Amino acid sequence: MSTSRRIKAFAACAAVLAVTAASSATAIAADPEPFTRFQNQQVDWRACSLGADDEIGRKLDAAGADCGDITVPLDYADPGGRTITVAISRLKATDTAHRVGPLLLNDGGPAGPSLHMPVTKSEVMGEVAGRYDLIGMDPRFVGRSTPLDCGWDLGSAPLRSAGADLAAYREEIAVARELAGQCERAHGDVLPYVTTRNTARDMDVIRAALGEDSLSYLGYSYGSYLGEVYTQLFPGRTDRMVLDGVNSPEFYSQTMLRGTEAANEAALRAWASWAAARHGTYGLGTTRGKVLATVEHILDAAAQEPLRIGDTYQLDEYVLPFFFIGGLGSDLDARRADLATTVRVLARAADREPVEPSEALAGQMEFLLTGAGSAPAGQMTAIVCGDVAQRRGAGSYWRAVEESRERFPLAGPLANNITPCEFWKRPAEAPTVLDNDVPALLVAATGDPRTVYASAEAIREQWPSSRLLTVEGARQHGLYGEYGNTCIDQRVNAYLRTGRLPARDLTCEV
Predict the structure, then answer these.
(1) Is the pTM value of this prediction over 0.85?
(2) Mean pLDDT of the chain
(3) Which ranges of 188-278 does DSSP label H, i.e. alpha helix?
(4) Which of 133, 166, 187, 379 is most buried, most CB within 10 Å of its CB?
(5) Torsion sign, CA atoms 400, 245, 134, 437
């Protein structure tokens, strides 16, 4: 699984928080002169590959894309000060007679690299892709853009569970405080500017540097929040907009999965039924209840003593639930099989048998348990904390964990646990408030365990001019081009082709 998809699967939980015009956005409108050098810059387009090991770059080059860097202010309130770069890719329109303009793409996260997306999305778009310049972007401090790494090592998983008891939770408080401190010591001078609002401002610099009056936009999960922020800060500068895995304001907080507990537990039960029907393959139990008992046994064993996987890795009660939640982001057979294969290994480890991880599991553990995942984990945390961090008091998280644990034994302690945001500096800007109406196409599954369906309904109500395209009964996060649903793919392509939204909200069958 690529870093981008891993981040999206595990942590795509950010929700549309609202948006008020920031002082620097107002300054841009009132006095554009300080920003002229950014808006009028010429992009130095070049080949994308950085070497033989650069798989993404080679695929972009093979598709005929090119890459470049956009220079933007670190702090938009100080455009004459320090600058950073944002990496972009471009797959130019081939159907020039029907060219619409640029379609900027975001894969979610937060902190999901999106440079690769012109290649992956052109596949589902088919002939419609030729009408757009497809623009991939690694958001500020992500991927090939100016980097940020908090220097986290063990325990740097972006989402951790609270543990089985108060003593375990007290260790989590210490971990969250230390992670926040490490990031502040490493990057305290830039952390106030690692925000969604500034990424949205970067998008508008990209628009101007491309010589365009408006952008079309396709954003998944957290990418829907980013798109919402852009429409609020820069009204009238969007053309066709598709938000897939839609977020709403109440779900965008420092406890990123809070509110998704019921959907994740429902997804766990559905997966358990699927695994029980394949007991002969995975050996996890012949009924849903027996499979769930296997999961409970694994979690209980990790709480008593970390599970040893191979000679290198140990999974404790804080990180282990992350593997289950991460595997529940899709109800496609292949994704369910991946989780079942992992659980089979974990079940043997819970019985204290010697086990070796699969290649995929070893990669996940390396990402979560070592410095290999430090940069993406820190970037994601910095964005969320930079947007909405607030001091709640350590006791408030524990009370929420205990209140949710009985109903949601897996998801509750994870979704409500303390995070480094509790010890972060307060955001430089007030949280954004959404008060606009945008004619967008919203795409959502009723059983989405990351951005729950109620989020899509809330944004549909917020934007009366939008239309909601629903897949009834799917437990899937990310639909267009990712679920193999012909109805969804065709409806989105029709909108991108014509610019006309459906006359009413529509439903597609699984």
Answers:
(1) yes
(2) 92
(3) 196-209, 222-233, 261-276
(4) 379
(5) negative
